[in-house]
Amino acid sequence: MLLAFKIKIALACIVGVAGPTAIAPMVARLQDPVTSVAEPALVEIAPGTINYRESGDHVRDGRQAESPITAIRFDRPLTIMTHQVSAADYQACVEANACRAMERDIAVAIDRPVVQVSWLDANAYAEWLSLKTGRRYRLPTDAEWAHAAGTRFKDDGLSVDDTDPARRWIARYERESALPDDPNPRSFGSFGRNEHGVADLAGNVWEWTSTCFTRNVLDSAGRVVKTVNNCGVRLAEGAHRAYVTDFIRDARAGGCASGRPPANLGFRLVRDPPTWSQSIAQRLGRLMHAVRA
Question: Both 22 and 83 in a single domain?
Fold first, then answer.
């Protein structure tokens, strides 16, 4: 009884600080524990700096230019899923009527990634998982994916021939065509882990990111002076970068902006640090659980 009284006092204090509008969703989550789902296995990547080749197209003096490399500093740890989202976990979202059904030929398995899902599908799953866990999950940016990938991130830079820009596209296609043709999804761990402990990066499943396709105009010094975004096309990361229309589920059937299309489209998510209200909600949730026990 005393503990329950303390919880009531804590809730009253929070309402006084944050107001009834802010506290209402938090109380609702505490009163609805049945709908929660287990959080996935996660890896925390330490802060650090990476040399990152800018994504998208770059143009200088009206001609295709090589994408510049910039140093990007991550000041906070990055928490990302150890594995891609599994077909079984995605199916749970489908059964909750929050995600679109998988294609018929995709096996529902807990040890294999969900594949042939669009960027819109991946984003819907992230929103559903966030609602069910009370933590914010989202697709990583391309730079975040590169940071998590570590040595598995491959530089896709190619030199540009000013006299014949088409040679760059030919060189890219030849490089990507040399990759093994392995379309069948494998069980988790088949492609090993990188130095951070993140599994199956750059295997035969390309992973959606939140990064939009961009066209960048460079000045004479190579600095970006203008950027045009097209968020109907998103960047998918894997054995190479791919730009794919956001509603496409199977890039082999169309929707890949350039280069060899990905064999499979899947995803893994980043978990953001909790906000102040989420931290309070988690503490109160533990207190409520102790009262019921």
Answer: no
Q: Is 283 helix (H, G, I), strand (E, B) or coil?
A: helix
Same domain, 242 and 168: yes
The verdict on 70 and 154 lying in the same domain is: yes
**Could you give the CA distance from residue 236 to residue 207 in angstroms, rounded to a whole number?**
5
Q: Report the pLDDT value the prediction gives residue 27, as an integer from 0 to 100.
A: 35
Any bridge partners for residue 58, and if so which? Answer: 65, 216
180-198 b/e with 16+ CB inside 10 Å = b?
eeeeebeebeebeebebeb
Same domain? 8 vs 74 = no
Residue found under tokens 């489908």: 94
Per-position DSSP letters for 106-160, written without gaps between them:
S---TTSB--S--HHHHHHHHHHHHHHHSS-EEPPPHHHHHHHHGGGPPP-----
Q: Which residue range forms the structural domain that includes residue 184?
A: 42-271
Which residues of the chain, if any, have pLDDT below 70? 1-36, 157-181, 255-259, 276-293
Interatomic CA distance for residues 45 and 227, integer angstroms: 30
By DSSP bridging, strand 224-237 and strand 69-74 are: unpaired
pLDDT of residue 57: 85
Residues 6+ apart with CB under 8 A from 19: none
Tokens encoding 115: 């594949």
Whole-model pTM over 0.85:
no
Any idea what DSSP says for residue 266? Answer: E
Strand partners, 244: 234, 256
Residue whose C-alpha is closest to residue 231's, from 242, 217, 218, 245: 245
**Are 147 and 262 within one domain?**
yes
Digit-coded pLDDT (tens) for 131-181: 999 999 999 999 999 999 999 887 776 655 555 666 665 666 666 665 666
The pLDDT, as a whole number, for residue 13 is 42
Distance, C-alpha 231 to centroid of its chain: 15
